[in-house]
Known about the structure:
- It catalyses: Hydrolysis of alkylated DNA, releasing 3-methyladenine, 3-methylguanine, 7-methylguanine and 7-methyladenine.
- The protein has helices at about 5-10, 25-35, 35-45, 60-70, 75-85, 95-100, 105-110, 115-125, 135, 140-150, 155-165, 180-190, 195-205, 210-225, and strands spanning about 15, 50.
- It is an all-alpha fold.
- It has a two-stranded antiparallel sheet with strand order 1-2.
Amino acid sequence: MTLADDAVAAIGAEALALPASAAEPAIRRHLAAADPAMAALIGRVGRCGLRVDRAREPYEALIRAIAHQQLHGRAAEAILGRMLALHAGEGFLPPAVLLALPDAPLRGAGLSGAKLAAMRGVAQATLDGIVPSRRLAARLDDAVLIERLTSLRGIGRWTVEMLLMFSLGRRDIMPVDDFGVREGWRRLKELDRQLAPKAMAQATAHLAPFRSAAAWYLWRAAEEKPGGFRAPAAL
């Protein structure tokens, strides 16, 4: 899997196009006008392939993200498949069901103790109203969601940023802790080393308010081969 594919897999592969086709050319023009190096990258890559799943609830997105932490996408999906097989009903494992299941079958599905504890924490926080529904999340700004969700065990800023980008469709997220994003910027700007996260945030501020699309292009920059660009995988 590519760097961008891994980020998408953390939230979910079933997706609808974002930005919308009508907005995507304007976003490309904005990024190109804001940064000559970005303009050249966009010229090589073409249209932005960032996609968002508009149906997935934050609870499910976070559970999937925990499963994907520090694992290859296929391994994480296999674990999720075994977890879902423990639920007799249709759809994703509801929070109450996840909390009611004993540890043994969930550990047998391949979850570590730490991941299981984190998932149970997300399930309980969903029932308690800390993890919002998709409808409520739409009324909360990025900073509020980041602060609220990173208070949960096993949920870091990067995980919430992936939720914001790939599940809630927020357009101005720059995940500065992401290795691929920082490596893409290093290559784009021909730097000797990656910028630290704080410096990265400052260096990419001029790409607002479309930094989510910029991050997608930076993942692509991190995957470029000398002498040409490898065809981007569908996100």
